[in-house]
Amino acid sequence: AQTVTQSQPEMSVQEAETVTLSCTYDTSENNYYLFWYKQPPSRQMILVIRQEAYKQQNATENRFSVNFQKAAKSFSLKISDSQLGDTAMYFCAFMKHGGGTSYGKLTFGQGTILTVHP
Amino acid sequence: DTGVSQDPRHKITKRGQNVTFRCDPISEHNRLYWYRQTLGQGPEFLTYFQNEAQLEKSRLLSDRFSAERPKGSFSTLEIQRTEQGDSAMYLCASSSGTANTGELFFGEGSRLTVL
User: Fold this and answer.
1) Contact B100/A107, CB-based, under 8 Å?
2) CA of A93: which chain B residue's CA is closest?
3) Alpha-carbon gap, residue A36 to A31, rounded angstroms
4) Do A35 and B42 touch (CB under 8 A)?
5) Which residue of A has its CA nearest to B58?
6) In 10 A of CB B40, how many CB atoms?
7) SS3 A102
C-alpha cells in the first residue's frame, strides 16, 4: 500500500513571494504519477500539476513547479509570485501507473492549508 | 459542459435515516469515482466505475453503502441507516479512459451531517 505524508498542516506567505509545500510518499512501485491538487474554500478540487515518475525533468505549470526526488520519495510544490487566489488547501496525491483498476485511484496526503496575505 | 455536478450540496439527517447522493460526471468520461473526505483530512477512495460496471470497492465501503451507475452516466451513492461517523464530504470525480493523463475532475462535493 502507498502512503502520502504532508508534514505542514498550515503555511502562510505574503503576496508576490515564493512558498514551498512539502510532500513525501512511500511505495514499492516503480511507475506512478504524483499530483498536486488545490481545493479552494467551498469549491471543487482542481489539478495544479502532475509528474510522471519515469520523467526525470521536474514539471512546471506557469507559477507552479515541483521538485521531484524519486530516490528520496519527495515531491514538493513551489509557488512563485503568490497570489491571493492561491489561498486554498493543497493535497499531494499518488497514483499507480499502468491502467486497470488502479487507474484513478488516488492516495492523498492530509493536506496543507495555504494562506496568501496581501 | 459545466463539469462534474453533485446533488445535494448539503444534507443534514438524523442517525438511522437513509440518504442518497447523485453525481453527474463530465459527459464524455467513462470512469467515475467516489471519495470521502472528513474534516482536515485528504479524500479517501471509496469506489470506482468504468461505464456501468463497479470495478473496485474500498474496505471503507461498508454494507450500508451502495453505489450504482445504471446507464453508465450519472451515479448514486446511498447510505442506509446513517451513523454519526458517516458525517463527511462525499466527492465524486470523473476521468476519460482514453486520455490516460491520470487527471481526475472533481465535483464540489456533497456534505453530509448526521445528527
Assistant:
1) no
2) B42
3) 17
4) no
5) A105
6) 10
7) helix
**Which one of B45, B95, B106 has the shortest CB-CB distance to A44?**
B106
Cβ–Cβ gap B31/A35 under 8 Å: no
Q: What residues in A contact B100, CB-CB < 8 Å?
A: 99
User: At residue B100, does pLDDT exceed 80?
Assistant: no
- Quote the CA–CA distance of A92 and A76 in Å, as a whole number: 9
Whole-angstrom CA distances from A58 to A53, A70, A114, B6, B28 are 10, 11, 22, 34, 30
C-alpha cell, B91: 466527492
Q: Which residues of A touch B3 (CB under 8 A)?
A: 44
Q: Could you read off the pLDDT of B11-66 as tens digits, one per residue?
A: 999 999 999 999 999 998 989 999 999 988 999 999 999 999 998 899 888 899 99
Name residue A62's amino acid: N
Q: Strands of B5-7's sheet, edge to edge? A: B5-7, B19-24, B75-79, B65-68
Which chain A residues are closer than 8 Å to B35 by Cβ?
Answer: 106
pLDDT (0 to 100) of residue A31:
87
Specify the residue for cell string 448539503: B10
Interval A32-88: pLDDT, tens: 999 999 999 888 999 999 999 988 899 999 999 999 999 999 999 999 999 999 999
